[in-house]
Amino acid sequence: MANTASDLNWASIEGIISDLDGVVYRGNAAIGEAIQAFKEWQAAGWPFCFVTNNSTHTPEEVVRKLERFGLIIEPKDVVTSAVTAAELARTKYPDLRRVFVIGAPSLVDAVAGAGFEITDRKPEAVVMGLDRQITHEKMRIAVDAILNGAVFIGTNPDLLLPTAGGFEPGAGATITAVAVATQVKPLIVGKPEPHMIETALSRLGTARSATLMIGDQIPTDIQAGKRAGLPTVLVTTGVPPLKDPSLAPPDFVVSSLAEIKVLPALAQSPRQRRA
Ligand SMILES: [Mg+2]
Question: How far is the CA of 25 from the centre of ligand 1 (A)?
């Protein structure tokens, strides 16, 4: 049985890393109590950073979306799998120049922004995310490049994405198709891998044991937080969470972020408190 919010020792918390979809909003609808909670944490001086597996929006687009919901943040407060994929490619493979991208314009922008040349001619790396205009020809170029030795990077492993009317295949579905065709395992960037959590931690500058990871999915958010060594909070949305005994359970479970209250005595930043 996981602990509840009242078991959480807020005095030891320095910062927050949180998922977006299912935590702060559901599709285009804000989750009011969550927005209110983040505004209170912001007023209390808690630094936070959002991490999202979605590679089809830029941090700036996320900032504008949250602004419509009344939460004012900056692009540096959002870590997407697109930006992390580009940064990871840059740091892990500093000698690579030519990259073939299958993905949304936001992924192309992120990879180009990291200094790579975007090309389908002799690419040295393939970076793949959700592409709603994917074609057999794009898959052919990716497969051919990978079989010729190109590095294979995937933004996120999500197989299914909920839509207004049902589901659509996620990036993981098409990444898997290329992986199966080539028999090459991609480097996956998004949750449950810890890469985005590490990026967020370095931006926050907080200690990992004192930084909460908040999410609505045990297989992705909670596992990523665990792998990065963070205390984890599952926020339930009324849908019973998937019970998979092979997955590490969250440390805390709340039904609303409103349960996580900033105490008046703690309503100053951790740095102020330490001073
Ligand atoms: Mg989510």
Answer: 9
Q: 123 alpha carbon to ligand 1 midpoint, in Å? A: 33
- Verify whether residue 21 is a known catalytic residue: yes
Q: Of 204, 255, 213, whose CA–CA distance to 231 is shortest?
A: 213
Give me the residues near ligand 1 (ion), CB cutoff below 5 Å. Answer: 19, 21-22, 216
Out of 3.30.70.1050, 3.90.190.20, 3.40.50.2300, 3.40.50.1000, select the CATH number for domain 82-188: 3.40.50.1000
Domains in the chain: boundaries: 5-53+192-274, 82-188
CA of 54 from ligand 1 middle (Å) equals 10
- Structure confidence at residue 26 (pLDDT): 87
Confidence of residue 267 (pLDDT cuts 50, 70, 90): very low
Cα–Cα distance list, 23 to 43, 72, 143, 192 (Å): 19, 16, 36, 16
CATH 3.30.470.10 fits 5-53+192-274, yes or no: no
Q: Which listed residue (19, 131, 158, 221) is catalytic?
A: 19
Q: Cα separation of 54 and 119, whole Å?
A: 23
19 belongs to the catalytic site: yes
Q: What is the pTM of this model?
A: 0.89
Asked if the domains at 5-53+192-274 and 82-188 fall in one CATH topology, the answer is: yes
pLDDT score, position 262: 63
| The predicted structure's pLDDT at residue 210 | 92
Q: How far is the CA of 88 from the centre of ligand 1 (A)?
A: 22
Match 């909003």 to its residue by tokens. 25
Cis before 192? omega within 30:
yes
